[in-house]
Design goal:
The chain has 407 residues and is mostly helical. Helices cover 66% and strands 5% of the residues. A 4-stranded mixed sheet has the order 2-1-3-4, sandwiched between helices. Mean pLDDT is 80; it is low at 403-407.
Length: 407
């Protein structure tokens, strides 16, 4: 058996034995993120139901306003209370009322005279109860508007369509009833890239700076093993752990969406991954794991202790996560140009795969582009493993890594 295979087995065994690495890269994310999604869905649904059933008081300014509102049944669990405008505003700030409704004193005459009466509703986005109060009041005011409009139309012997010649009826062909794919397209790129990065960073730090700190690296380097074999074993180990972490999270998220997430309201959030979608994601996740593994090993090799390695990885993680966040900006879509931008193309391809818009050209350009950058990252990692900075833990850092000749 070749030396790098022996080293690969040894490194994988060390990773499996390291409970901290397993906890941070595989077990915790797999259990944490689906749990968070389910918990968020439960909390949102319960909070929405609680607000719908909570008794609320709306301040009404003036008898004309109360008379106007009394033409219709008040919303369920809602009562009116007469106050002045100043009193209502003060009560709203103190959360004693959820909204304040104000109508002109001549509101009835204005409506009867065929003019427009402006009804003011004071509320605040600071409190959820106030926003719920506004949601309860709107249908009632709309009903009053429809009723007054119908009276005017009847008086003129006109149809309801006369005041609305063109009516817009938007129908979402894809997400009218199920928001699962849309929600998954927003969450999966960020979560999968995050897990891919975490899956590469922590093993890379442990297999480089961690071994320096434990004193096992010197023993490995003085053995009859070439540095390239050491680098190959560590590189493949980090890549395998990163891919395994991403796949475990992909499976966990798939199961979570498959069970359904309740976010309140009539729309459901379910999502089933097809075999083609999984293959498309793998086509970009595996090259991305190779890229991130090379970057992680190159950076971690300059650290002398595990703590120092973690400090170095923090900015690397932020930089690598930026493309995932950028992929969620409006107007940023996968195309011939964005397919060549590393990590951004991965996030966009995952998003496109979930929405079913990914093409063979998109997959090919993304995979080739990421593999090209992965080869560059591997070259940098190889230089790092041949440098004095890696072998002896020098203080030169990145400058020494790129200026000193390999030894």
């Amino acid at each position: 058996m070749s030396p790098w295979r022996i080293l690969l087995g040894k490194e994988l065994l060390d990773v499996v034995r390291d409970r901290r690495t397993l906890l941070l890269t595989v077990l915790l994310p797999v259990l944490l993120y689906p749990g968070i999604l389910l918990l968020m869905g439960t909390i949102i649904a319960a909070g929405t139901l609680r607000l719908k059933n909570e008794p609320m008081t709306v301040a009404v300014v003036g008898a004309p306003t109360l008379a106007l509102l009394s033409k219709r049944e008040p919303p369920p669990k809602t009562s009116w209370a007469l106050h002045t405008r100043a009193e209502g505003a003060a009560l709203l700030k103190d959360q004693k009322v959820v909204a304040v409704v104000i109508a002109p004193d001549d509101v009835e005459a204005t409506i009867a005279g065929g003019k427009q009466a402006v009804i003011t509703v004071l509320y605040t986005k600071r409190f959820d109860r106030s926003m719920e109060g506004l949601d309860r009041i709107k249908p009632l005011l709309d009903a009053l508007n429809t009723q007054a409009l119908q009276v005017r139309l009847d008086a003129l012997n006109l149809e309801a369509g006369f005041v609305q010649p063109v009516k817009t009826d938007p129908v979402d062909l894809d997400f009218q009833k199920d928001l699962g794919p849309l929600l998954a397209s927003r969450l999966l790129p960020i979560i999968l890239l995050t897990m891919l990065i975490i899956g590469a960073l922590y093993p890379a730090v442990d297999l480089t700076a961690g071994e320096k700190e434990r004193g096992t690296l010197e023993t490995l380097l003085v053995s009859a093993v070439r540095p390239v074999d050491v680098m190959a074993a560590k590189y493949l180990t980090v890549s395998l752990v990163a891919v395994a972490t991403a796949l475990a999270n992909l499976a966990a998220m798939g199961v979570t969406f498959g069970m359904g997430i309740s976010l309140g309201g009539p729309a459901t959030t379910t999502f089933q991954l097809t075999f083609g979608q999984v293959l498309t994601m793998l086509a970009c996740l595996v090259p991305a794991a190779l890229l991130l593994s090379g970057i992680s090993l190159a950076v971690a090799s300059t650290a002398r202790t595990f703590k120092e390695g973690q400090s170095l990885m923090s900015p690397v993680m932020l930089v690598c996560l930026a493309p995932a966040l950028l992929s969620q900006m409006p107007g940023v879509e996968l195309g011939p140009f964005t397919a060549l931008i590393p990590l951004l193309n991965v996030a966009l391809l995952i998003k496109a795969a979930v929405l079913g818009t990914a093409t063979a050209l998109d997959v090919g350009l993304t995979s080739v582009s990421v593999l090209a950058f992965a080869a560059l990252a591997l070259k940098v990692a190889a230089s790092a493993f041949n440098s004095e900075t890696f072998r002896f833990g020098g203080t030169g850092g990145w400058k020494a890594l790129f200026t000193r000749k390999p030894v």
